Amino acid sequence: MRFTLPTLLVVSLVAAPATARAQSVDPSGHWEGAITIPGSEIPFQVDLSKNAQGKFVATYSRPENNLNGLPLANVSLDGRAINFELTVDGSVKFYGTVNGDGTTIAGDVTARLGNAAFSMRRTGDARIAAAPKNAPIGKDLEGTWNGTLSLQGTNLRLVLRMVNDSDGTASGTIVSVDQGGIEFPLALTQKASSLTLSTSAIGGDFYTGSLTAAGELAGTFSQGPVTAPLTFVRSK
Predict the structure, then answer these.
(1) Residue 115 predicted with pLDDT over 80
(2) Which of 25, 55, 124, 188 has its CA 20 to 30 A from that of 159?
(3) Do domains 18-124 and 143-234 have the same CATH topology?
(4) Terminal C-alpha separation, the chain
(5) How far is residue 210's CA from residue 21's CA, in Å, rounded to a whole number?
(6) Quick one: 99 exposed, middle or buried, by C-beta within 10 A (0-12, 13-18, 19+)?
(7) Residue 152: per-residue pLDDT
(8) Which pLDDT score, from 0 to 100, does residue 108 have?
(9) CATH class of this structure's domain 143-234
(10) Domain coordinates of the chain in residue numbers?
(11) Distance between CA atoms of 33 and 46, rounded to whole angstroms?
């Protein structure tokens, strides 16, 4: 699952000012903003919230690119200094400062090839969707599966986990090991030996496969016009 972000300029790391670290603010909410590069702006959205353990979680969206709710990694808050990382296309790190009344965040975004400014404004409550709950799946699908997706000369290791939960539903996640360990909650649809995986983060259905006589899950990955064979093997 590779997503291309526009190339930025001049890599640098940005240290948050001491005054930002000294004060505390709650950044929970839905934020809309843009990354500013020469000649244009890249619009994006971020949702920030606390999970049941009291830790901040965040997602990144670009609705015009059909990306909604991509999980962000390494979310941290120190006073008014906030950092988070997008790991689907290398490492894209955001270093920001929340203003005094908690309505805006501004700072720098850095990537392997560049650096640019960004700013966001809080527009409402966070919109982080709960993980999908699915109909129970067959015992032959439960467990951990490993696969490698080959796209445009790049190999991405994937870990698929599916389980029947105690409440009578099923849940699933897929982890892209080579993209910072980003984890996507999944909607699961089983019809006989066929399985479809879906996540709203990348536009819906992205994989359909079937159990083979050898006990593998063989099928096709698809995202927009891109398709590729993808086989999962149960982990031992």
Answers:
(1) yes
(2) 55
(3) yes
(4) 24
(5) 52
(6) middle
(7) 81
(8) 96
(9) mainly beta
(10) 18-124, 143-234
(11) 8
What mean pLDDT comes out for the span 106-124? Answer: 93
Query: In degrees rounded to 5, what are phi and psi of residue 184?
Result: -115, 125
The alpha-carbon radius of gyration of the chain (Å, integer) is 19
In this structure, are residues 177 and 159 in contact, taking their beta carbons and an 8 Å threshold? yes
- The tens digit of pLDDT for each residue in 188-232 reads 999 999 999 998 887 788 999 999 999 999 999 998 888 999 999
Q: Residues 6 or more apart from 176 whose CB is under 8 A from it? A: 1, 88, 156, 157, 158, 182, 183, 184
Q: Give the per-residue SS3 of 150-202.
A: EECCEEEEEEEEEEECCCCCEEEEEEEHHHCCEEEEEEEEEECCEEEEEEHHH
- Choose among 161, 145, 175, 154: nearest CA to 235: 145
What span, in angstroms and rounded, lies between the C-alpha atoms of 218 and 212? 7
* 153 Cβ contact list (under 8 Å, min separation 6): none
Structure tokens of 181?
């360990």
What's the whole-number average pLDDT of the chain? 86
Instruction: Tell me the average pLDDT across 130-135.
Output: 88
